TrEMBL record:
The lineage of its organism: Bacteria, Bacillati, Actinomycetota, Actinomycetes, Kitasatosporales. InterPro entries: Methyltransf_12, SAM-dependent_MTases_sf. Keywords: Methyltransferase, Transferase. One of its GO terms (molecular function) is methyltransferase activity. This is Methyltransferase. GO terms for biological process: antibiotic biosynthetic process; methylation. PANTHER family: TRANS-ACONITATE 2-METHYLTRANSFERASE-RELATED. Signal peptide: none annotated.
């Protein structure tokens, strides 16, 4: 792996950049309903105390309170500016880095992390740490990007942009999605039981939140993408135009969600 010069939020996806909260919320529009459906099926509901790690703008945390009726959500992030912008009853922002030794938010019935581990260089060590925050019988649910198509997709602007994005993010901030299919095994290795997983791949439709999310993400990651030598600026622009074309037939990277339960 190339030596990356900064972590998520320091080099590419900076919270202080105008529109970063809107970019994150485009992803929430795509995946929040899928996440909430899975959490409800796992029994998350009234009385539960929850931890949302890498909470971003807090969309999952707020929906847990509003829709699932949980008792409390501790929303953890290295930068909580989006979590403190609006006061929500039952939501407690917790500014801390999950990889630091002083990350000690307590014990929870649910620990949830979405699109977080893929950006951490020590992700394999973080999974047991998250599992250790569960109460007996508590549930760990982790979701990360899984790209099962790009490597084998026909050559074209979209596939080239996706390949350049993954490589550029790996070179600059250490993002790696190649490990994600191993996630269920890693949960089991952490001592969790009843481990299972599923994959959701959203359709790429012109003007849809997922299409707009990738277009915005490529704009923010453009420098890292071009630095790979796999694309130039014109190629990135052409890939963005593909997302707006009704004739485009590419497949988006999806979201793999894995979960497991702590022994009683």
């Amino acid at each position: 792996m190339a030596q990356h010069a900064g972590r998520y939020g320091e080099r590419v996806f900076r919270p202080e950049d105008t529109g970063e909260d809107s970019r994150i919320d485009l992803g929430a529009l795509v995946y929040d309903a899928v996440t909430m459906d899975r959490l409800r099926q796992l029994g998350v509901g009234p009385g539960w105390r929850c931890l949302d790690v890498g909470a971003g703008t807090g969309s999952v945390a707020r929906r847990l309170l509003r829709e699932a009726g949980v008792a409390e959500v501790v929303a953890a992030d290295r930068d909580v500016r989006f979590l403190t912008a609006e006061k929500v009853a039952g939501l407690t922002p917790y500014e801390s880095d999950v990889t630091s030794e002083d990350f000690a938010p307590g014990r929870f019935d649910l620990v949830h992390a979405r699109f977080l581990l893929m950006h951490l260089p020590d992700r394999v060590q973080v999974i047991p740490r998250l599992a250790g925050l569960l109460t007996p019988g508590g549930i760990l649910v982790v979701s990360d990007a899984v790209d099962l198509t790009t490597a084998y997709a026909p050559d074209g602007p979209y596939a080239a942009a996706m390949r350049a994005m993954w490589q550029g993010l790996r070179d600059t901030i250490g993002t790696d999605v190649t490990w994600v299919p191993r996630c269920p095994q890693l949960l089991q290795d952490a001592g969790l039981e009843s481990v299972a997983a599923e994959i959701h791949v959203p359709p790429l439709v012109p003007g849809s939140p997922i299409s707009r999310f990738w277009a915005e993400t490529w704009q923010r990651a453009r420098e890292a993408m071009v630095a790979t030598g796999l694309v130039d600026d014109a190629d990135v622009d052409e890939a963005v135009r593909c997302l707006d074309s009704p004739a485009f037939t590419g497949l988006s990277p999806g979201m793999l969600t894995a979960w497991g339960r702590a022994p009683d």
